[in-house]
Every structure is written in structure tokens, then in C-alpha cells.
GTPase HflX (Jeotgalicoccus coquinae), 409 residues
Amino acid sequence: MEMTHTGIILATNTVQNKNVESEVRELKELSESIGIEIIGTHIQNRTSIDRKSYVGSGFLEEVRMQYEDIDYCIVNDEILASQNRKIESIMDTSVIDRTQVILDIFSLRAQSKAGKLQVELAQLEYLVPRLKGQGINLSRLGAGIGTRGPGETKLETDRRHINSRISDIKRQLAVVEEHRLRYRDKRRSNQVTKVSLIGYTNAGKSTLFNKLTNAATLQEDKLFATLDPLTREMVLPSGFQCIISDTVGFIQKLPTTLIESFKSTLEEAADSDFIIHVIDNNAPDIVSQYDTVLDLIGSLNMKEIPQLILFNKTDLNDKKRLLPMKPHKFVNMNMPAQDILMDIENFMAKTFDAYNTSIPLARQDKLYRLKRQTIVKEVELGEESVEISGFEPAGNFAERIVDKDDERE
């Protein structure tokens, strides 16, 4: 993206920080993706964040002396309105925090009506508590960063109007969620196996999604290229048919407002039978990215869902830099899709129930249905029957298919 503004990053390194350098590198990339060229980063080691000015006022004065003119001072954490005012008064420039940067990216990436509503809801819920008194300098905020897109219009309007808009958005999203629930119920009644791709943003989920489904989903080397969940059919080498969903990427310090707004979207993954966790094997912060996704998996109650880890982009880096206890494979975009699909099939088979059955030689239609609804591993032709063995999801698929009489009989 063309750099249209300049900015610096402020961060604190406290005992709560797991890896502040990783967070700052990520925030720099986030900022540059919305057109802010980062010309300096400043980290203060502290026991805790300063309640008045985030970092010490003396530290702010020292930083201010190093720059003649900058457009933005970007804070690595979500800050209070009072902290924003204090930093702004000393730095004499617009101040935005990590949450606003992420909200801005989401507003640029959202494509569907539901996605745009979710972003607007997150923006408004972020702003409401900051409208008391002076709050954040709204004239500066109105310039765009952190509030552009659906949430950009007339931020100076009164709180009642904003709360009314929040209620209206929640009603519209409730309708979307009701539609999703009906779809989930239909899928469960049809006993369709669902797989969800999850992972850190820009790990290559959409590229894998396209490869495994022959879809044409947007795939770009940028953060949060996918916001709206997409679902397609995936056919495994044995012929077993299931559905796979591509989901929004995770990130360190994902704002609470966004987690709440996108909760229904994230719950799509929590409703899955299997999870494929995609990791960028070339990422410099591979461990912190892995830990971030694990934390969110825990918060969404997804720990018990069978999980396969795919270390992606091994064409860029094929070193084994992280070896989790979970089943895992090393893949890249240049591999044949069938190889990756076979890894997924073998992974699924280990959680399915084994079965053995036979069908009359004349009833090849039943074999076709078995291949679509179960993982058929062996087929042996006899004189009068076909012996079949394989693996099936819980629910006795094979038995029902074999025992079900043809409508003509």
C-alpha cells in the first residue's frame, strides 16, 4: 500500500508482555498496511503501564524531541481516553492505539453485509466509552484511521444516536445468526462432516482453501485478506465428501470489541468436526503466533475438536522450528493437492469408526454412496457380492446405506 502518512510506535515492556518485540514488529506491519510509514519505534521497560500517560511523561518528552513532524503516534495497547489526551498534548500529533489500527484494517477488508455490520459494531462500541467529556479528539479521529468505513459518519453526534445504531446493528446481525443456525441444524440433520481452517492472519489459509477445493477465494499476501467465512465442498482421495470453511485470521491482542462482534463468525469454527490449524513456517515469530492461536482456541472452547496442524510455506522455509504434540504435516502451495488431501483423509480416518460390510454385486449404487459418505479403504469383488472396509463418522452410515432398500424395491 502507498505510504500516505508517517508515524511512530510507542510500547511498554511489562511483566505481562510475552514478547514485546514481536508485538511491535506486527504493529509496524499492521500500520504500514493502512498507509502509515513507521519511522521510529520506542519501547519503555516498566513494571506496569502508566495510568495517566501509558509511558512516563518524561519518556514522551524525550521521544517528542527526536521528531520535527509526524502524522501519528501509534500505541501498542488499547488505551483510555485520558491516556490518549495526555499523549496527544505532549506529542502534539494524532494518537491512535492498536485497536484502532486493527479496526481500520477490518473496515477496509470487510466485503459482505454481515462483515461490514460486525466492523461497524466494533467501531461504535470502541468509541462509546470515549465520548465522555472531551474524550478522544474526534475531529482528528474523523480523518479516518480507526474509524473509516462504516463507522466514519458523524462521530460527534450524541450518545443516544450511537446507542440506537448499535441496537439496530445487533438486530440485523441476529437475523444473520438465525440464518447460520438454520444452516448448522440442516448440516447436522444431514450428518455432513465439517472442517474449519484456522490460524494466524496471513498464514496462507485462503491459498490452501483454494487448492483443496478448486475455489477462487481472494488470496493475497496481506493481513486479514479474509474476513467473511467461506464454505466449499472438499472431496478426499477416497471420494468422501465434506465441507471446509475458511475463517478470519487471528492476531496478538485481538481487540475484545472485535472478538465480540465476530463471535458468531468465530463460532462457525467451534461448530466443526475437525480443525486444520495452518501455521506460516516462515514466520519469524512462529512460536508467539502458535501460542496466540492456542489461546483463542481455548477461549472459544475448541480444544476438544480433533486438530491437524499444517506447517505451510515450507517452500520458503522447510526447517522444523516448532514440533507440537498434535498431528502435523509440512506443506506448501507447490505440492499436489491430492497429497495434502490424503494427509487430511488419513487424519480423519484415525478418529472415525472402522467398518466392514458387503453389498450385492448388482448394487454398485450403494458402493457409490458409501464412497461419498464414508472413507472407503478396500473394495474386494466376489462372485456375488462386494466386500468393503473403511472408516465412517459416528452414526452407522455404512449400515444405514447398505440396509436401506432402493425406492424401486
In short: DSSP finds 14 helices and 13 strands in the chain. The first strand starts at residue 5 and ends at 13.
